[in-house]
Specification:
This protein is mostly helical. It is built from 9 helices and no strands.
Length: 294
Amino acid sequence: MSDIINKQVEHWARNLAILQDELEHSASDRSCVIVAAAYIDELLEYLLKNFLYSPSSEKEDKDLFSGYGPLSSFSSKILLSYRLGLISNYEYKTLQIIRKIRNTFAHDISKESLLEYKEMLVPSVPARQLLLIKSIPLPSENTAEPPLPIVPEVDMSSSRDIFEKIVLCLSNLLLSRCLIVVKEKRVIPQDYKSLVEIDDQKICLIQKSLNELEQLIDLIKKAIELNRQMIKGLSDTSVTQNNKEIEKLKVEIRNLETELEDYKQEYIKTDALLSMTKYAREQIKKAFDKEMLT
């Protein structure tokens, strides 16, 4: 696993450096946008491929990501990455902005400048702490302490610089997501062997829900009791201000009691479901035993 991660880090770090150089030296805003979008599109595909179950053949990947495949478009890659929980809200919204700008530049030859998209880009300007540092000086024999790296800033007067800084930051964020999904790669679940096995899983999940409901009910009861104790303490003193605090606590208690009743009803229903599932499981098991099915 570490070898895979190291190779990926090396590959994409090299590509990120190439992207950074390409953005800085692109002759036009149009080429800058097209190159940036192409890089991020490829990075999203890489992210999804590392998360999804490995295909049995290259054709499966081609059917998915190429031609008219369901994940062949930039838009579909963005949406699925978000719905799978692989990217953050900020990353999703910023990717959508870059996609829209890319589409405009790709399909409208009259669009030549990023200036008209500045207002759209500004909300996605990252915090300075997230801006990609181009190089980190290493210690040498001549100096005890190397100079500190230069933390970049965004030139808010330049729509091009805003776009470049956003793209580089976003690319770096997506790279970190790629490293995470290597360890979270999907695997194909094993086939069920019988209805008993399915019911065993249901029972386990329902019991887990019951345990969580018990904990919630206990916490709410403790919160109600704590508020009642606070009311008692405030009632022992004759301070006018305390009356307002007491009323607030009473309102909170009523809200908690309503919430508590809801959770109790949910607990009753869940407990009934658990009992029914256990009964069904036992009856099925007996029927299988009678038929000598294992």
